[in-house]
Design brief:
single chain; 257 residues; mainly beta; Jelly Rolls; 2 domains; six-stranded antiparallel beta sheet; 50% strand
Length: 257
C-alpha cells in the first residue's frame, strides 16, 4: 500500500460580517481538467455567469435559498439542488433576502473526444437545462452498501461526458465497503449533518458537513459511520475515459432485474 493523504477542504460557511459575495477555488490541480469553486452570495445582488467555450458547468447548491434565472425562466434554489445550464449561455443566480446561498461551481474542460461524444448523447439531455432536487432523483442499490443505505443518482452519465454524480445516505452504525476504481477520479461533498470517517489505503480522515475531499486515484477506500451519526454526501465521478463508465453498471436501479 502506498503512503498517501486524503486531500480535504472545509468550506467557509460562516463568512465575515458584511461579506456580500465570496468565491474560493478549492482542491486546485487535484483532477486534470476539473475546477471546483465554493461561491456564496449573502445579499440580493445577483451573480451573472457566462458560459465558457470548451467547458461544461455543474452547480451544486448546499445551503441557503435563492433563484436562478435561465432564458427568462426562474428555478427555485433550496439546499441539495443540482443545476446544469447545458447550452444556455447566461444565467443569473440570486440569494433570498437575508439569507446566504452557498454552492459549488464545478467546471469540466471538454476534450476532443468529449465533444464528439456529446453529439451522440440524447438531445433532450444536452440541450435542455438540467435541474433537480437531490431527493427527487432516482434511487439505486450497490453491493458495497447496506440495505439501510439510500443512494440516488443526481447526475446521470449521459449529460456531460465522463461525469456522473450521486448521493449516499445512512444512519450509523453502517459503512460503505472497501473498493477501488482506478478508472475514475472521485470527489466527496459532505451534506448537512454528515459526520463519518473516510479511509484510503493506510490513510483516514474525519469527514464532516460542508467539506470536500478527493479520494486518491486507485486507492482502496471505504467509509464508516458510528452509531446514531449521519453519513450523507455527494460522490462525483470523473472518468478518465469513456470505457471507465462501465463501473456504473454496479449501480442497480430499483425495478431492474
Amino acid at each position: 500500500m502506498q503512503n498517501l493523504e486524503i486531500p480535504l477542504v472545509n468550506l467557509k460557511i460562516q463568512l465575515p460580517k458584511h461579506t456580500q459575495q465570496y468565491s474560493e477555488s478549492i482542491l486546485e490541480n487535484e483532477i486534470k481538467g476539473i475546477r471546483v469553486e465554493h461561491i456564496a452570495i449573502t445579499n440580493e445582488k445577483p451573480i451573472i455567469d457566462i458560459a465558457k467555450v470548451g467547458y461544461k458547468t455543474i452547480y451544486l447548491f448546499v445551503k441557503g435559498t435563492g433563484t436562478i434565472i435561465a432564458e427568462n425562466k426562474s428555478y427555485e434554489l433550496v439546499p441539495e439542488t443540482i443545476f446544469l445550464p447545458n447550452i444556455v449561455q447566461k444565467i443569473t443566480i440570486k440569494s433570498t433576502k437575508n439569507d446566504s446561498l452557498h454552492y459549488l461551481k464545478i467546471s469540466s474542460q471538454l476534450t476532443a473526444q468529449d465533444l464528439l461524444d456529446l453529439k451522440e448523447f440524447p438531445t433532450e439531455d444536452t440541450q435542455n437545462v438540467y435541474y433537480a432536487k437531490f431527493t427527487d432523483c432516482q434511487s439505486y442499490t450497490e453491493p458495497i452498501k447496506s440495505p439501510n443505505t439510500i443512494s440516488r443518482t443526481i447526475l446521470p452519465n449521459k449529460i456531460i461526458p465522463r461525469i456522473a454524480m450521486g448521493t449516499v445516505q445512512t444512519i450509523g452504525p453502517d459503512k460503505v465497503g472497501a473498493h477501488e476504481h482506478p478508472m475514475l477520479e472521485q470527489l466527496f461533498l459532505g451534506l448537512a449533518k454528515n459526520h463519518c470517517t473516510v479511509y484510503a489505503d493506510d490513510a483516514q480522515t474525519d469527514f464532516s458537513q460542508y467539506a470536500v475531499l478527493h479520494i486518491p486515484l486507485g486507492s482502496n477506500h471505504s467509509v464508516s459511520v458510528e452509531k446514531d451519526e449521519v453519513l450523507y454526501y455527494v460522490w462525483m465521478d470523473f472518468f478518465l475515459d469513456k470505457k471507465g463508465e462501465e463501473w456504473l453498471k454496479t449501480h442497480i436501479v430499483y425495478g431492474d432485474s
